[in-house]
Each structure stands twice: as structure tokens, then as C-alpha cells.
Amino acid sequence: MLPDAKYNETYLPREELEQLLRDRGVTPVDLMKVMDAYDMAESVHEFQKRLDGKPYFWHPSRVARIFVTELNHYDASIVCAALLHDTLEDSNVLTPEIIELNFGSYTSYLVQKLTKDIKAEGVMKDWVEREYIERLMQSSEDARMLKLADRLDTYRCLEFNVKRNPIKYIMQTQEHYFPLAQGSQNARLKYLIKELQKEQNKYLG
């Protein structure tokens, strides 16, 4: 990350991710798998922008960076899922079966757990949200970590107008997503909650 760059202007370049994983002893086979996930996610999100006008792909790349550099969690299945976590929502051709074929059953499981119907509206949207949160509550700690890392990256972009109503986003996160770490002794989950709290204090005081 460049020292003077705003957070939302940063992303994890392919070459940097590859070097980070090499330095941590990731095997060549796993390294190739992660690089393929990087390329697939970049392709799926190629023409998408966030509300701040920045390329959408920068978001999942930063989620992957959170796992590798902040959580020291560089299992290939997890890093692949971090990169791919929004692809099923944003692709008309990608399926869980394709993800499983290319990246394994656990990566596919994780991506499915983080996928929801983003086109739902009205009463159905509320139902989808409740079902989604319940599904995450019943999922593996890795899936819950992925979701909290996803929210953390967005928290860090709130000051750049990435959400129309940042206070609402914070309150929803606190009410519905903080419980994903409740009762867990997992140090990584605790770290994510601590970082989320630190970011939201900028808004809530």
C-alpha cells in the first residue's frame, strides 16, 4: 500500500499476493490455485464500480489482503474464497459447481455461504437478509471470518461514500454481524471485531 494513498484507492496486486504467499511457504500447486482465483474474480468484476467510483475488484483483493497480512491466514481455500466471495452474486454464468471443480469443495462451500440474493426487494429482501444471517451463524468459523473481513473492508471505505447511509450500515453490522463472533475464542474473529469497533467509533464516537 502506498503511504499517501487513500484506503479505497488501494488494492492487492497479483504480483504482491503471489510474493506474500511464496514468502509464507505456500506450495506451488496452492499458489497456482490462488492465482487462478484472482484472475477469475478480476474477470467477473471487470466492469463493476463501487459507489465511490473505484473498481469493485479492489474490494475482494483487499479482503484477501486482510486474511494474509492481518490475520496471518493463508490457507489456499480461504484466500480463494476471499477473492471469490462475491462472484456468484455478480456472474450470470459462474456456479458453485464450477468453483468446486476449479478450487475445491471447501472454497465452494465458503463462497456459497457468503452469497445471497442481492436482487430481492421489499418484504422478500428482509426475509433474504434474515435467512442469510442465520446461515452464517450456522457456518464454519472460516465463513464467519470471511464475512466479518468483508464488512471490515467496507467499514474502512465508509468515509469515501461507499455506502449511501453509513450509520445504517454500521448499526446493521453491529446488530446482525457482530454476533458471528459471539462466544468464540478464535483470536482472528476477536481481531476482526476489534478492528470493526475501531472503525465504527469514527462515526459513533
Query: Which fold name corresponds to the CATH topology?
Result: Hypothetical protein af1432
Rounded average pLDDT: 94
Q: Would you tell me the structural class of the helices and strands?
A: mainly alpha
- The CATH homologous superfamily name equals Hypothetical protein af1432
> So what's the overall shape?
globular
User: What's the SSE pattern?
Assistant: HHHHHHHHHHH
Computed over alpha carbons, the radius of gyration is 16 Å
Domains (count)? 1
Which CATH class?
Answer: Mainly Alpha
Number of helices: 11
**Uncertain stretches of 5 or more adjacent residues:** none
Quick one: biggest sheet? none
Q: Give the distance, in angstroms, between the N- and C-terminal Cα atoms.
A: 27 Å
Number of strands: 0
Which percent bin holds the helix content? 55-70%
Strand content: under 5%
State the CATH architecture: Orthogonal Bundle
